[in-house]
Amino acid sequence: MHFLKCNNCGHFNEVKTQYMVFCIQCNKKLENNFSEWSKRNAEKSFDDYKNQVCTTELNLGPIVQPKSLKKIGLKFWIIIAVVLIAFISIVSFGGHRIIGLIKKPLYEKVLMKTAEEINKTCPVMIDNITRLDNAIAMPDNVFQYNYTIISMLKDEININEVKSYLEPGIVNFVKTNPQMKTIRDYKTTVNYYYKDKSGVYLFTICVTPEQYE
Fold first, then answer.
1. What is the pLDDT of residue 2?
2. Which residue has the higher pLDDT, 95 or 184?
3. Rounded Cα distance, 146 and 137, in Å
4. Global pTM value
5. What is the three-class DSSP state of 206?
6. Range in 31-35, 116-120, 136-140, 199-203 the model is least confident about
């Protein structure tokens, strides 16, 4: 495990992806994040960054191993993508903007503005198989992230198994993550919509206020 210390609050952020830019504790930009570091070290890899910049010894206890299920490779990448894009979308492009806009009368406008900011960066690859296509502020206080699994077709995926594997973690993320507080406060339903590489619909994980209250 590798960690990057926040110079603002001192929190040690676990570095799981090269896209980590903001501290999960205080939402401030992390100094010497990989994106900034790689500009000065273009010839070096993400592994070089973790070994040279990050801290490894924090005595945080044993690493929890993922469940052993069929097609674990696909499910591992999808769950990483879900958590990562939720973090990037809400924290990097949404969180601080929502805070700035929340005093406006219509919360729907806040969601629309958040989707607009996210979509400026889309489409964006989250990992080698998962792409965020866009985000949509939908009627009735619903916010949706649209993903494509670019390397697989529908008949290659055990949809029920993958969905049942992902759903508890996603619900828990929306329910407990501090960066989702505004979503919870305004009782917004959050959809995670997936399709295969040919554009065929796979499944939607819908997190309602009843699930996170």
1. 83
2. 184
3. 11
4. 0.54
5. strand
6. 31-35
Residue tagged 């992230």 (tokens): 145
In terms of residues, how long is the chain? 213
Helix (H, G, I), strand (E, B) or coil at 29: strand
Read off the DSSP letter of residue 71.
T
Segment 22-31, tens digit of pLDDT: 777 777 888 8
Is the separation of the CB atoms in 115 and 143 below 8 Å? yes
Tokens of 153: 């077709």
Which of 87, 132, 94, 88 shows the shortest CA–CA distance to 114?
94
Q: What is the CATH number of domain 72-212?
A: 3.30.300.250
Q: Which of 82, 104, 34 is nearest to 180 (CA)?
A: 82
Q: Where exactly are the structural domains of the chain? A: 3-53, 72-212
pLDDT at 74: 52
Greatest CA separation for the chain:
49
- End-to-end distance of the chain based on CA atoms, in angstroms? 32
At residue 78, the pLDDT reads 53
3-class DSSP state for residue 6? coil
DSSP helix/strand/coil, 13: strand
